[in-house]
Amino acid sequence: MIDFARVQKELQECSRDIESSGIKVSPKSDSLARLTGTIPGPIGTPYEGGTFQIDITLPVMGKFEWELKDGYPFEPPKMQFATKVWHPNISSQSGAICLDILKDQWSPALTLKTALLSVQALLSAPEPDDPQDAVVAQQYLRDYQTFVGTARYWTETFAKPSSLGVEEKVSKLVEMGFPEVLVRSTLESAGGDENLALEKLCSG
Amino acid sequence: MGDYVDSDDDYDYQDSDEGCDDEDDAVEGIEDDTEIVARGPSFKVITKESILAAQREVMHKVMDLLWLNAHHARTLLIHHRWDVDKVTELLVENGKEKLCAEAGVPTGNHNNDIPNLPSSVGCEICFDDVSVSDATKMECGHIFCNDCWTSHFIVKINEGKSRSIRCMDPNCNSVCDDAKIKALVGARDPYLAQKFDRFLQESYIEDNSRVKWCPSVPHCGNAISVDDVKLCEVECACGLQFCFTCLSEAHSPCSCLMWELWTKKCQDESETVNWMTVHTKPCPKCHKLVEKNGGCNLVCCLCGQAFCWLCGGATGRDHDWTTIFGHSCGEYKEEFEQKSQRAKIDLHRYMHYHNRYQAHLDSFKLESKLKESIQDKISKLEERDSISKDFSWIVNGLHSLSKFRRILSLTYPFAYYMFGGEIFKAEMTSDEKKMKRELFEDQQQQFEGNVERLSLLLEENFDDYDGERIKDLRARIIAVFKSTENLCRNLYDCIENDLLGSQQGTVHKISPFSIPDIQRIGLKEPLQQWHS
């Protein structure tokens, strides 16, 4: 079972120094097993200025009922980017993260905050030799400039919901003949993905 | 030869090459030649009960070498896959401290029991304060509450990481003390603690390149340890003989690759499939396979569809003996016939070798049943003469026979790959191949004749023989055994030196010939001793 008392304490701890770290963790619903983490993109990287949301699921128990497995913190939390991000160690499709401390290097003494700090550190120091997304990693190694450009564009497009980029997309979609209110809500539910929003709008 | 095992070991062992004197002579000449003819390394059988003793023996070496306790020695050995030589080498190279640190053996002395600490400590895992008696300090100096330690251990054991459970501190590399793990886990789940103990013991076998489980099904519980990981065939105490490299049944003189290909070939009957693809054609309409049983090239399927046998295309029915009206595909004819011819030859070749291989395998099975009938005959004789004599020579003679028989059956798949197919295609000219094949076949036939002779002698109904005739039978068996053994050795020489030895950079190393039981077989002692 998850040690909820510990999760509770972690959340308190985290909200106390939110000013200095910029890292936020909040429960998604009443259950403490599903949370959302928020990290700012590191300064001096193509992710600067973006705010990235990460879905966190805490492991409850083993695969089988009879398995005497303890959940969090003895097993690592499952983390996945909810915001689309262009990075060699993060899947551009699913947001899956390739980070050792979320797998076999996890230690129960680590916390959600330290794990999120590691994810943030991963954003500033990609490891293209151990890629999660082969396409991105290849671009990173072969054509670094294009990589930076794409990563920055993705940050602008997906990690800044209130930026000008969105207004442009809204007007573009409105020009296509969709009502503005609908466009805004659809765009939001699609996570800022213009194409996905268009698909949704078209399908009804 | 120098590869005997000390007999004062405290667990069971079997020496793989307790050779006789003249075996020495025969081998001496070629010993320094190549790896292929190197003697098989000696091996030991480790039973379920002796795993611990075998493990302890290796641990003691490291404990004496480095002044470590048993737990630290085990951690170090697990990290280095139980290779004492490697540990010694690294000790000289890097020194004790580095060696230990890399393996996660704590070097500092934090072992004293939490002195000068307040009565309660804050656990950094559950964020609770617990009394000192409910917390445990590992050798690395990190202290957490017992509940958290236990959960951590249970998760790691269930993840299959029992052999190196590290401290919970994210920056600490040291492996936790197995005694403490056992005590803590045992308090919550005694069964899992037992499992943990077993996992640690089995590490000696599973993480060790010189030791392998016997592949018997159902598993006999034994493992085999070899002195040297070179290619060799070993025999478990349960009777199973297997190849230490590929773990399949003993297959010398076939190499591991040949044996793998052969078993696969026999399994999927790929030759039959091959035959079918050449001799039949799918109907273009109903797709059933159609065989041509005569007549011209216009074939009619049962479904009524007519098609051209040469190209498989659907046609009309109007034709004469030479042409199908409105259809032409003549240029394909030649190629097709060549293909058909080759498939026929390949199949024929495979059948030749497979039939002989199978025949000897069948004899092998029949001969293993002989054991009981020989026992019957012996007890009859003993009843009649009311004295018990030493009949081990006939029982052991039978044992050798089955060994010879197995080798004989395996010479056929060997020849199949040696003198045909793709493996050695580029390495011999066809003249060379023919010459070598004849040489090999000559040896093989002689060996075969002697194996049959030995088989015949062992089947004699000696139960109504008098003492004189039994003496005679024994002498004949010994004579035939000796010549068979010599022929077998010659055959191996031929394979190792003339056939495989000449191949450049070959991967086909085979296990060397050995009859490990000559000493025990009782065929060596003088005749007089038996008839006293």
UniProtKB/TrEMBL annotation, chain A:
Ranges for domain UBA: 165-204
Active site, per annotation: 98
Gene3D superfamilies per UniProt: DNA helicase RuvA subunit, C-terminal domain, Ubiquitin Conjugating Enzyme
Domain UBC core: 2-160
One Pfam entry name: UQ_con
Keywords: ATP-binding, Nucleotide-binding, Transferase, Ubl conjugation pathway
Family, as annotated: Belongs to the ubiquitin-conjugating enzyme family.
Descriptive protein name: E2 ubiquitin-conjugating enzyme
UniProt gene name: UBC27
TrEMBL record, chain B:
Region (Disordered): 1-25
Family annotation (InterPro entries): Ariadne (IPR045840), ARIH1-like_UBL (IPR048962), E3_UB_ligase_RBR (IPR031127), IBR_dom (IPR002867), TRIAD_supradom (IPR044066), Znf_RING (IPR001841), Znf_RING/FYVE/PHD (IPR013083)
Protein name: RBR-type E3 ubiquitin transferase
Alphabetical UniProt keywords: Metal-binding, Repeat, Transferase, Ubl conjugation pathway, Zinc, Zinc-finger
Keyword Protein transport attached: no
Catalytic activity: [E2 ubiquitin-conjugating enzyme]-S-ubiquitinyl-L-cysteine + [acceptor protein]-L-lysine = [E2 ubiquitin-conjugating enzyme]-L-cysteine + [acceptor protein]-N(6)-ubiquitinyl-L-lysine
Protein family membership: Belongs to the RBR family. Ariadne subfamily.
Superkingdom of origin: Eukaryota
GO BP term, pick one: protein ubiquitination
Enzyme Commission no: 2.3.2.31
Native organism: Turnera subulata
Role: Might act as an E3 ubiquitin-protein ligase, or as part of E3 complex, which accepts ubiquitin from specific E2 ubiquitin-conjugating enzymes and then transfers it to substrates.
Pathway: Protein modification; protein ubiquitination
Domain RING-type, first and last residues per copy: 119-333, 123-167
SMART domains linked to this entry: IBR (SM00647)
Cofactor(s) named in the record: Zn(2+)
GO molecular function, a single term: ubiquitin protein ligase activity
SUPFAM superfamilies found in the cross-reference section: RING/U-box (SSF57850)
